[in-house]
Specification:
Helices cover about 0% and strands about 50% of the residues. It contains one helix and 17 strands.
């Protein structure tokens, strides 16, 4: 459920939500490569963008903390907030995630107030889907980085990433205790742009002032001839290869356990 969900606003832009989820896993050696996750927190960005990219002022954030404004139960997401100042928008979000894997219901942000269907971003009619679209995984060590790339128009993209700590993979110095739990982050929004023929740029953490799961880091990668890998370099760090997944999730016991 993490990441971006949107629908055209009829004016060349889009309205939608971006969901950022934090979970915890127990940190102990595992043989299967899979450990159950426990819910820690949800942050919801409610946006109305003009053009292909969310900019400052286009999005407002709420959380499921005690005073955060978000209620999420049984696949139903609710936010109700009155404007405190004349220049602020009011919000009434009442959406249900249904079997078609889209959110259906009321979306009210400021002047926009309609019944909508929010799905994963996709280009308009007649626009060919880019070979960059998809979900890719990189496992450099005790952590895994997962990047989701979606297309909003011809040559325009949005992205979000997950940062997963892998239980039992990290090594600790003598005398240093293994932490009992590890945090994992899903749906951190990224800036994604074309950087050349079959080359794409991803700025991880570009929209996250708190740098949850790691501060701003850029990756420029070239799509392999068979379209299954993005090979490039994380700026100032190391050469990296992101491998395309089957489906839209990187939480895959068969891969993470290796």
């Amino acid at each position: 459920m993490s990441g971006v969900w949107e629908t055209p606003d009829g004016k060349g832009g889009a309205v939608g939500i971006q969901l950022e989820l934090t979970t915890a896993v127990m940190n102990f050696p595992i043989r299967s490569g899979w450990s159950p996750m426990h819910w820690r927190g949800l942050r919801v960005g409610v946006f109305e963008r003009i053009g292909p990219e969310v900019k400052v002022g286009d999005v407002n954030f709420f959380t499921d903390s005690a005073r955060g404004g978000v209620k999420f139960e049984d696949k139903r997401l609710e936010i109700h907030a009155k404007a405190r100042e004349k220049w602020e928008p009011s919000f009434d979000i009442d959406l249900v995630l249904q079997q078609d894997d889209c959110w259906h219901g009321r979306f009210h942000r400021g002047a926009f107030d309609r019944v909508v269907t929010l799905c994963r971003p996709r280009p308009g009619p007649g626009v060919a889907v880019s070979p960059f679209v998809g979900t890719c995984l990189e496992i450099p060590g005790a952590t895994a980085r997962c990047v989701h790339i979606a297309q909003t128009a011809r040559g325009a993209f949005v992205g979000w990433s997950d940062w997963l700590q892998l239980p039992g993979r990290a090594k600790y110095a003598p005398g240093v205790s293994r932490p009992g739990k590890l945090l994992e982050f899903f749906g951190s929004p990224d800036r994604v742009k074309l950087a050349g023929k079959r080359v794409i740029s991803v700025e991880f953490g570009a929209y996250n002032s708190g740098c949850a799961g790691g501060c701003l880091q850029s990756f420029v990668g070239r799509l392999s001839a068979d379209g299954t890998e993005l090979r490039g370099e994380l700026a100032g760090a190391y050469a990296a290869t992101f491998t395309k997944m089957h489906g839209d999730s990187c939480v895959n016991p068969g891969l993470i356990g290796k």
